[in-house]
Amino acid sequence: MPYTPDDFNAKGELRLPLAFWLILILQSRTWILFIVAGASRQQGDSLLKLFYPDTQSFWLGLAAGVPAVMAFLLSGRRQQWPRLWAAWRWVLMLALWVIAGLQIWTVQQGDAFTPMVAALLLADLLALIWLAWDKRLRACFRSDLTL
After folding, report:
1. I need a surface site. Which of 27, 56, 104, 121 has the fewest CB within 10 A?
2. CA of 101: how far to CAs of 3, 83, 106, in Å?
3. What H or E segment, with its residue span, contains residue 14?
């Protein structure tokens, strides 16, 4: 086993890497914006219209972020639902494909390809690559690997 006892949490599960949490934040960015807009009551509507002038893309962003929000919730219950947790890595990768596809589709529909859109698309693709090939993360999603 290439892992030390310090790599495991108190429940005996392999600790999730920091990059995994950053990817979940990246995927749930619409949810985070929604919460921030709700917290800033007076400027919430203008904040949402700034980032999502089209309400349809806002709802699509919320839907695409559901797997990341669920991953936040499932991460603390990995031992209770080991099969669901093991499959969730694939769900997150599929969600990243969908998010990247939606970004490309909106650009093809006439939205401007701004540097922000390019940066988010690149970040989503890099996150997808990391989710697919990082050995440590794959080990975190295995239910048979415990201390």
Report:
1. 56
2. 36, 28, 9
3. none
